[in-house]
């Protein structure tokens, strides 16, 4: 892994010096792009297209195009190159892979290309289940999300914007994390640094760095842990047949500004009435929501805790091993 990291650093420096993308990142032949964006997010627009006979997602990085200033565009180019190089080398069952970067779909623009996930986001996917079946599917997806995040953290990568809309479900019905790193691209190229992401998934130290003795806000593995608990809560209504809702949905004064003040003051969403969230998951969520980031558990500890509540068959490999599914089967 150390040799791979050094090689990626060298390639990144060469690309920066040459002011161009490495040829290994560039692909051609993306065609049949949908006329309109299928999804629009904070960083870009997603189109459906075809590549080598298979459907792909073509992500137009809008922020890269939102300036005419040469220097700003260079900064964005270098950030995009860095994130793409990191993403390209990630291979894990619960991480969306990067196929490459397309430079032909839009004039003078760059688009990231990844496999098309027909099931959509985890939120869309869960809407098709009911009752006990839904609960078992949610429990499995939560474990898979944790395992995908564990792989990122093991690779020294912070997701930065973990929430339901950034978690897809692949064609085999498994969770697949996406859009990690793109918030960093946004942060580095916008005037308002706190504008990327959603405040309802943000840890208190991001919302108010001064209160924690931090000079500036910075997304960390600890803020990812906080967001993971919010994702668990976000999926909670799906354990019945309710519409999925963001954290603090339905609470008094639940606009974003009010939510920010509540989170900074140490307020967390209450446990839903009834048995919607299993005790062991609620316990994990409370630990993840610790006000001081140093008191939150590691994602590896969370994965092990979730695994302890599931029967396991086979030989257990590292939860960060991309091939762990060959030897580890989680029974629902």
TrEMBL record:
Cross-referenced Pfam families: PK_Tyr_Ser-Thr
Superkingdom assignment: Eukaryota
Record's keyword annotation contains Transferase: yes
Positions of the Protein kinase domain: 32-313
An example Gene Ontology molecular-function term: ATP binding
Keyword terms of this UniProt record: Kinase, Transferase
Keyword Kinase among UniProt keywords: yes
Record's protein name: Kinase-like domain-containing protein
Protein's organism: Mycena pura
